[in-house]
Design brief:
By secondary structure, this protein is an alpha/beta fold. It is about 50% helix and about 15% strand. It has an eight-stranded parallel beta barrel with strand order 1-2-3-4-5-6-7-8, surrounded by five helices. Helix 3 (about 55-70) links the parallel strand 2 (about 40-45) and strand 3 (about 75). Helix 4 packs parallel to helix 5. It folds into three domains: about 1-90; about 120-225, Dihydropteroate synthase-like (TIM Barrel, Alpha-Beta Barrel), CATH 3.20.20; about 230-265, no CATH class. GO terms for molecular function: cobalamin binding; metal ion binding; methionine synthase activity. Keywords: Cobalamin, Cobalt, Metal-binding, Methyltransferase, Transferase.
């Protein structure tokens, strides 16, 4: 499971303030804490800034985080100019969050994917919005992933996001998401699947329980990357345990190592 730490996101007031004031130590500590907790990659987002300010802020954010930790970054913005600014200074192979079937988004982001050889989160949406049914979602997903492959993006670099919605307002969303991942996996062997766990619980109390349950259920249907809070020790322990049960952790070696390192304690 690829753990993408979600905490460096300016929708959090503390991160917004740190980015605006260029608080190097605060950002570095957030990055270090997530990597020490088990994150393999960090999502960086400063999208609350004005559009004209965001590219410079993203450049600073990428450089600041990579000065603190030796992991790749998932550069996250709806502003393709901010994506470009972050990619230009990123060391190693980055991930772009995200591309979609929306005409303008696809046109602006695909050249960046190819220029920088980046992995990319592929959102299951197009100009009509988020699909309303499994059939429509499958149609959108097949077209988007097919187009990326045709454009020369390796399947191993594509992380398909089925865009789970809140179960509070879409009671069948998780069941549809699981079916969608299974269908897409059968059509595109080697395709990765990623999800932002917190989307499923929006508007509900004690959200962490739903996020954790969704992660475990989704791993059984092919989810192999999450954008989540690695400081949630229970979530991380459940991920390690689920990998062992799904035979993705041979002889439970990772699980045992995590126990020895004290990572399985609540």
């Amino acid at each position: 499971m690829l753990i993408i730490g979600e905490r460096i996101n300016s929708t959090r007031k503390s991160i917004d303030r740190a980015v605006r004031t260029r608080d190097v130590e605060f950002i570095r500590q957030e990055a270090t804490n997530q990597v020490n907790a088990g994150a393999h990659m960090l999502d960086v987002n400063c999208g609350t800034l004005e559009a004209q300010e965001e590219p410079a802020a993203m450049e600073w954010l990428v450089q600041t985080v990579q000065a603190a930790v030796d992991v790749p970054l998932c550069i996250d913005s709806p502003n393709y100019k901010a994506l470009a600014a972050g990619l230009a200074v990123h060391r190693g192979k980055a991930m772009i969050n995200s591309i979609s079937g929306e005409t303008e988004r696809y046109k602006n982001v695909l050249p960046l994917v190819k220029e920088y050889g980046a992995a990319v989160v592929a959102l299951c949406t197009d100009d009509r919005g988020i699909p309303a049914s499994l059939d429509q979602a499958l149609e959108v997903g097949l077209k988007l992933v097919g187009n990326l492959l045709e454009a020369g993006v390796p399947v191993d670099d594509i992380f398909f996001d089925p865009l789970v919605r809140s179960v509070a307002t879409n009671p069948e969303t998780v069941l549809v998401t699981l079916r969608l991942m299974e269908e897409m996996s059968a059509r595109f062997p080697g395709l990765h699947f990623v999800s932002g766990l917190s989307n499923v619980s929006f508007g509900l109390p004690e959200r962490r329980h739903l996020n954790r349950a969704y992660a475990v259920m989704s791993m059984a249907s092919g989810l192999d990357a999450v954008i989540a809070d690695p400081l949630d020790r229970t979530l991380m322990a459940l991920i390690y345990a689920t990998e062992a049960l799904l035979n993705k952790d041979r002889f439970c070696m990772q699980y045992i190592r995590c126990y020895q390192e004290g990572k399985l304690k609540g």
